[in-house]
Amino acid sequence: MLKFTPANSPYASVSDTLLDNGYSVVPCMPGSKWPGNYERKTWSARYGWQQYGDRLPTDLELRHWNTWPDAGVCLVLDHQIKVIDIDTDDPEIRAAILSCIPDSPVKKRGAKGFSAFYRGSASITARSFNLGGDRVLDLLAYGKQTVIPPTIHPDTDQPYFWTAGSETLMETTVDRLPELPDDIIERVEAALEQFGYLAPTIGDAVFGDADTAWREVNDIALTRLDDWVPSLGLPRLKRSHGGYRAVAAYRPSGGGKPMEKRNLHLSIHSSGIKDWGDNDRSYTPVDLVMVMRLCAFHDAFEWLRDQLGIKPPPVNVEALKMNAERRRVERSSQIEESPQPLVVPEEAQNDDEIVVEKAQKAIRAPIGSMNPHDPRVQGGLMGAISRWMLESAWRPVPEFSTIGAVAFCTALFGRRYSSPTGLGLNLYLMGIAGPGFGKDHPLKALQNLLADAGMQHLAGPGDISSDSALEHIVRQRPCFVMPMDEIGVFLQATGGRNSGGYERRIRKVLLDLYTKGDGMWTGKQKVPTQGSKTVIDSAAEPVFNPTVSIMGMSTPTEFYSGLTEANLSDGMIARMTIIAADKRPTPREEREPVIPPKSLVAEVKRVAAEYPTSKGNMSNNNWRTPTVRPAIYMVPWADVAAKARWREVEDWQLATIDDDPSKDGFVSRAAEQTLKLATLRAISRNAADPAVITEDVEWGWSIVSQSLWSLDAGVDKHMVNGDFEKLCKTIVQALEKSNGKLPKSVLLRSKGVTKEPRMITAALQHLAEAQIIYPVPSGARATVTLVKAA
Question: What is the number of other CB atoms lying within 10 angstroms of the CB of residue 325?
């Protein structure tokens, strides 16, 4: 029986053979279709995996990756290997495609369609083919990757498999794969014409997917520098050796030199773009546009594309209609193709079944494709605030610059704008990191920027003594953000096992306020008295659209100590967006006062004044009057694609809850948080005329998906429900810090382990029975060893 265990993951079971056959394979993050990285017992998306298209992994890398638990297998394509991924089960379209491509003896299948493997010349590049907005085929080549068996498919929860009767890459070397003709793209286009396929015209960018379009526009920009570089407004721009040199104006001068005295460190040539004054940092054309124009990726991409005169591909309306009708017929006929049988690896052919051992079901949110903590990606005012918070921090932490910038925007845009679905823009943001991460900096920076901009009224209290106190401030100021240090202590007081009735009511008010940003909040009515007499009084006036946000900072231990099992289902956890940092920052040489630059303060004021005039300006939209309904501008969707991407997040959320109802307390607000974040980013980019684009949604989901992974890992590692469980986790943590082994005498002296002897004995016995540690022999010289470290 073949088992997938940490020592024999899907990746470890096939990686050596695949590498011997000439295939460059890297670990796939469990529950996804993306290369992953495993550090500190946590999986995250791997970036820079494209390098393995130019080289095979080293033996050292392979040995290391083979130890990663549950790792799937991603095949990184070099200049020779090609994959045709047919992503449709439509029998007519599928037959047309198969009629124009050679057969391959190697095919794999996941949820639908199949992928066939080939070799071909370097002239065959990646390309995608859509019919009416639906992807039907991907030609994967250099710069791409594909997931292969026996990886567990994230949707079916079953392994990918080699189709019946086909060979596998385990027994087929690269030179034995069939060869694709150089004109394969033209052949596929001709085969799809009958279904309304419209090929890109000459000069159009290939918009098969964002990665291809981005690469194409960047490549063209490097060959046509004169068409866009002079329009960027770079200070002291000069011709130099066929390119340009200029001052890197986006980067502050260390010595405070005026622009005319700064060196021309920025080099722009057809061979690339480098900032020689910033450790030879490289930029793509789109990157340079982003930092110079203070805009997000989408806006920079469109600006550069317009400067180059590249037209987006036309939309084939007929194809949209044809495909919609085809889907309608499919649904009515309910024809489903029988799944192909699984090809069992040779070493398991005599077994009755293949068993995939999996840990207790985690959330496994598919990680978003963006790095949300890069100020250049955030763009607009949010990016500018994030950049300042990062550059002014004594201990710079990108994650905490993000939380500060987002929190600022929740207050600035709150009660003035709403999401495309009418959601208020309040968020409960939690920054989590250990000691020495500078968690106080974003709190100070937020308050100082609000004060310098004359917006002190948007800064709420840093602590709350009662629910009445919270209600009092909401009735005075309906929109604010609370910068709360050590919020873990606050959570312990309001929702911990020993919290009293008064403290628990604070939590109830916070739960209620979160959902009332798009409606009316009545608060708590008290019976007024005069002396000993009860006075009949009308109910308190309602507060319209209260927008209360939290930016809380805490250590993992304090934060998760404030949670209990009951808290995982009462809705508070689902309302929190966790932004965790685990890479300890290096302090700067000097600590400087946290003073916002005048240019940033002016930008805050300018953006605040750009509320859409069609709905009323800031002076008359009642946004500061709690008992009057404000004129709120509903930010629209920019296009159908943005809404569809958000629907994918919502579908994942609902499917996760349907699959495991216990996850409702974790993920029930995932789509809501994603849309709030996306809307904040859209307003930050263009407050006068905002619209949510696909990239805004992807950025929001990147934060939320990372939040879910952090929460899942944090609850598992830190949350305890009693002294005994806390002791067990403390023992495991002490062993992990010591490479999995400790003499029992040393362990007993560790912090948090010095308990009553019978409890320690019971804890060690419990951990041994759970197969977390090996049974501990009696005696003073016994050694305690983690099973997974052996």
Answer: 11
Distance (Å, whole) CA 728 – CA 743: 16
pLDDT in tens, 683-706: 999 999 999 999 999 999 999 988
Distance separating alpha carbons of residues 407 and 611, to the nearest angstrom: 19
How far apart are alpha carbons 613 and 633 in whole angstroms? 10
Predicted local confidence at residue 344, as pLDDT:
37
pLDDT at 498: 52
3-state secondary structure of 480: strand
Question: Given the DSSP bridges, would you call strands 543-544 and 520-521 parallel, antiparallel or unpaired?
Answer: antiparallel
Nearest to 433 by CA among 549, 588, 557: 557
Spatial CB neighbours of 651, under 8 Å, sequence gap ≥ 6? none
Q: Name, in order, each residue with C-beta under 8 angstroms of 141's C-beta and a sequence gap of 6 or more.
A: 77, 79, 82, 83, 120, 124, 125, 126, 127
Strand order in the sheet with 243-246: 238-240, 243-246, 266-269, 272-275, 281-283
Dist. CA 639–CA 775, nearest whole Å: 60
Give the model confidence (pLDDT) of 508-561 as tens digits: 888 888 888 888 888 775 555 555 554 444 446 888 889 999 999 988 877 877
Are the C-beta atoms of residues 430 and 714 closer than 8 Å to each other? no
Contact in structure between 615 and 632 (CB atoms under 8 Å)? yes
